[in-house]
């Protein structure tokens, strides 16, 4: 999530809402000990479809390629399905090799569509495996 202006004044309220998993949004963190090493989130795309969510994922540079992103994404997928989502979408830079590895790990490479330097991902959710 990026802010192109001032951060919200009620940051605690905002963070509490962000971390509440429901049919509109969810954020999950991955920790090694007490250190946050990854975050994944989804937000419902209500203007597209009430059952479509867009996800974002970030893992600390030194902790990439160890399955953390794949684990976060699987958990996000399960949470989204549990809360009524049936499709997940994302925009991925074609040069983002770690994220493309996560997509391969999930078996989603056939769901990618290229648009210049960006890849569009759209997958159907099937619930907990």
TrEMBL record:
GO terms for molecular function: acyltransferase activity, transferring groups other than amino-acyl groups. InterPro entries: Acyl_CoA_acyltransferase, GNAT_dom. SUPFAM superfamilies: Acyl-CoA N-acyltransferases (Nat) (SSF55729). It comes from the Bacteria. Residues 1-128 form the N-acetyltransferase domain. Gene3D superfamilies: 3.40.630.30. Pfam families: Acetyltransf_1 (PF00583). This is GNAT family N-acetyltransferase. The lineage of its organism: Bacteria, Bacillati, Actinomycetota, Actinomycetes, Mycobacteriales.
């Amino acid at each position: 999530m990026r802010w192109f202006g001032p951060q919200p004044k009620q940051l605690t309220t905002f963070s509490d809402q962000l971390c509440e998993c429901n049919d509109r949004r969810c954020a999950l963190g991955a920790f090694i000990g007490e250190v946050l090493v990854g975050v994944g989130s989804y937000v419902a795309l209500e203007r597209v479809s009430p059952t479509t969510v867009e996800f974002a994922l970030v893992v600390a540079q030194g902790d990439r390629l160890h399955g953390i992103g794949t684990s976060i994404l699987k958990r996000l997928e399960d949470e989204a399905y549990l809360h009524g989502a049936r499709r997940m979408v994302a925009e991925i830079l074609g040069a983002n090799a770690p994220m493309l590895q996560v997509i391969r790990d999930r078996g989603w490479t056939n769901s990618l569509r290229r648009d210049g330097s960006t890849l569009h991902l759209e997958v159907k959710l099937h619930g907990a495996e």
